[in-house]
Amino acid sequence: GAVVSQHPSWVICKSGTSVKIECRSLDFQATTMFWYRQFPKQSLMLMATSNEGSKATYEQGVEKDKFLINHASLTLSTLTVTSAHPEDSSFYICSAIRAGDVAGELFFGEGSRLTVL
Amino acid sequence: GENVEQHPSTLSVQEGDSAVIKCTYSDSASNYFPWYKQELGKRPQLIIDIRSNVGEKKDQRIAVTLNKTAKHFSLHITETQPEDSAVYFCAASIGEYGNKLVFGAGTILRVKS
Question: Residue B100: beta bridge partners?
Fold first, then answer.
């Protein structure tokens, strides 16, 4: 149990286009999901906290108009990279907390590799 | 805010030897400390975790120790195998509900056969 799936696993797009990444909890409800960004050979940097039915909370330095997050249901959060540029190329990983769990344990998606040409 | 430091950045060991990775954190309110293993291009996998009310936890070849007073925790892998080669991240919980994680910079572990 506790499977989190991301789609797409990789995407290549032209500069200036928008890209949407989906994060789904397949067998549990997730009241909270997190979006991380990981550059090559670096650590995971928390971008934002996505709460079902409310606005996302963004970490300092993350542009909310650039990275749109929607958490419309207890099993789906989406991250849209708007007007993508080459510097947005990265590995984006979502994670979810299972509703009712003791705070802490995260379940990660497979990650989505974005390449902006 | 929370700062998690992880050392070493790279670690090479001979197969069968032990490997130790250390992390320190700054926020005394942190109470959950997981360790993740990440292979290239894949998602982080939780390998072991510890909560602040426990000083040590062991799962087969993997153990984690926590010193809350000194604000440091360590990962110990015994009898290392080539398949243990990966990047390992420590993390510490933060936030109002303790459900956000701040990650260390990672340690590249290479097990030589």
Answer: B94
